[in-house]
Amino acid sequence: MFTLTQLTSFVAVAEELHFTRAAQRLRMTQPPLSRQIRQLEHDLGARLLNRTNKSVQLTPAGRAFLVEARGILRHSEHAALAVRQVSTGEAGSVTVGSTAAGAHSTLGTLLSTAREAIPRAEIVLREMVTRDQLAALANNTLDLGLVRPSVTGPDLVSRPAVKEQLVAALPADHELTERQERLTVRDFEGQELLMYSPVEARYFHELLISIFRSAHVTPVYSQYLSQVHSILALVNAGLGVALVPEAAARLRYPEVVFRPVELPTPAPVELDLVWRSTNDNPALHALLRCLRERMP
Question: Which domains does the chain have, with CATH numbers?
Answer without folding.
Answer: 4-87 (1.10.10.10), 89-163+270-294 (3.40.190.10), 166-265 (3.40.190.10)
